[in-house]
Amino acid sequence: MSKKISNTIKTLRFFANEMTQQELAEKAGVTRQTIAAIEKDKYSPSLELAFKIADVFNVPLNEVFSYKEDE
Amino acid sequence: MSKKISNTIKTLRFFANEMTQQELAEKAGVTRQTIAAIEKDKYSPSLELAFKIADVFNVPLNEVFSYKEDE
DNA sequence: TCTTAATGTATAATATTTTTAACATTAAGT
DNA sequence: ACTTAATGTTAAAAATATTATACATTAAGA
């Protein structure tokens, strides 16, 4: 009944030449812990950070984050 | 040189039978002030709220929010 | 086996978003 | 002119995201 945000960051990192969390963090302008927390769904990022992460991978935001019913 | 988030909430409200800020706020589960602040670019919402707002209008997130170079 | 890079995790401090409450202004209808 | 709904706006509190620091674990290579 309720929707949740999920993401494909780990996969995207893997296909981006196995980019590390650290590298992604630097390119997105945040710390490694922030990336780790988001990857593990500890919390959902700000819209701005979501856009920045998508930009790093050169994909639209909806290829990184989706909002769907959680099964 | 820097990117900024902009949104089309006001327009979307207008085309959604002139939905008020108050109605949108209720449907998105936030207060009217939050909608007003976002409409006026006082700050960018959380990713979750961005998704909820898009859901209210039944459009993808990128039809509500965009992240582009500011002129 | 030893090192090292990468990741997992936790906690307290800081920053940002969101709420609550309040009052002002605008536009429309009567 | 009066009323009312909608919006503009502000300030302080509460909630959530992010940082900084620190230490543990894992996997891979020398």
TrEMBL record, chains A, B:
InterPro entries referenced in this protein's UniProt entry, alphabetically: Cro/C1-type_HTH, Lambda_DNA-bd_dom_sf
GO MF annotation: an example: DNA binding
Keyword DNA-binding annotated: yes
Keywords: DNA-binding
SMART domains in the record: HTH_XRE
Record Gene3D superfamilies: lambda repressor-like DNA-binding domains
Span of domain HTH cro/C1-type: 19-64
Coiled-coil region(s): none
Listed name of the protein: XRE family transcriptional regulator
